[in-house]
């Protein structure tokens, strides 16, 4: 079975790098790690479906 997926695009709050992660289309939040500095973030879908909101992991 193929799960529909979409791209969660988010900006690292530490270094500003744009990261992208493929998530199932029903997902509204996920966690990811910056590919540049390695900072863990909680990422939530934003107003625009492609650009997600990110905040540092506690
Ligand atoms: Zn970063």
Q: Overview of this structure, please?
A:
Helix content is 0%, strand content 52%. The protein has 58 residues and is an all-beta fold. It has one domain. The protein has a 3-stranded antiparallel beta sheet with strand order 3-4-5, with no helix packed on it. The protein has a two-stranded antiparallel sheet with strand order 1-2. A hairpin with a 6-residue loop joins strand 4 (40-45) and strand 5. 16% of the residues are buried. The chain binds zinc ion.
Instruction: Write out the strand line-up for the largest beta sheet, numbering strands in chain order.
Output: 3-4-5
Total domains: 1
What is the CA-CA span between the terminal residues? Answer: 35 Å
Q: Please outline the major beta sheet.
A: 3 strands, antiparallel
What would you call the shape?
globular
Fraction of residues in β-strands: over 45%
- Helix/strand/pairing category: mainly beta
| DSSP summary, beta strand count | 5
Secondary structure: helix percent = under 10%
The number of helices is 0
Rg from Cα: 11 Å
| Small-molecule binders | zinc ion
Low-pLDDT windows of residues: none
Q: H/E series, N to C?
A: EEEEE
Residue-averaged pLDDT: 93
